[in-house]
Write a structure and sequence with these properties.
This protein has 186 residues and is of the alpha/beta class. It is built from 9 helices and 7 strands; from the N terminus they run H-H-E-H-E-H-H-H-H-E-H-H-E-E-E-E. The chain has helices at residues 7-19, 23-29, 45-55, 66-76, 78-87, 93-96, 107-120, 140-144, 147-150, and strands at 35-40, 61-65, 124-128, 156-165, 168-171, 175-176, 182-185. The longest helix has 14 residues, at 107-120.
Length: 186
């Protein structure tokens, strides 16, 4: 069930959790994971992004806009992407996330580098614009279970546009989402 809390109230709840250094509480509630899904109604996402940008300090948090990362990924490798698109027409998602047994520079690795960069600066990465993952063949659980996230001393936070259908969390109100490896704030 979605909370009736405003974005500012949810951000306050989140910062209190982080400031209290309740890392063990996060891991306990996240089944050993190190991530927080900061759930908002899809129609409210822009309001939440605005509140996040206004409320969180740059000293502790790094906002990672996945929309901007996707545009960077496309801009920086446009010719190769066109070739891959023609080659992989039946498996376009492999352009964004190379199969596990293959090497390649893909969108998934760009996301992980951005997260790792925030951790290297001792900042908490806060992903926004996660809707771009929907068609890219990348699930949030793949990010949350990546070793750089699991082994970090700070948690990863994802602004997650979703709704609840009973006990099921529905990403973008469309696709069942994993609640494993993450603590949910909604």
């Amino acid at each position: 069930m979605m909370s009736s809390l405003s974005p500012d109230q949810m951000i306050s709840q989140l910062t209190q959790l982080i400031e209290a250094d309740k890392h063990s509480e996060i891991r306990l509630n996240a089944n050993g994971g190190n991530s927080i899904l900061f759930v908002c109604e899809p129609a409210e996402e822009i309001k939440f992004i605005t509140a996040i940008k206004e409320s969180l300090d740059d000293e502790s948090f790094r906002i990672v806009d996945l929309n901007k990362l996707l545009l960077e990924f496309i801009r920086d490798d446009k010719q190769r992407l066109e070739e891959l698109f023609n080659l992989l027409q039946g498996s376009v998602n492999q352009i964004f996330k190379t199969p596990a047994d293959e090497e390649g520079d893909d969108f998934f690795r760009l996301i992980i580098r951005a997260i790792s960069g925030a951790f290297a600066e001792n900042k908490i990465p806060f992903l926004i614009g996660s809707g771009v993952l929907y068609g890219a063949g990348i699930d949030s659980i793949q990010i949350m279970e990546h070793e750089s996230v699991m082994n970090a001393s700070r948690p990863l936070i994802l602004l997650y546009p979703a709704t609840f259908d009973g006990d099921s969390l529905m990403f973008l109100s469309k696709r069942p989402a994993s609640k494993y490896r993450c603590m949910i704030i909604s």
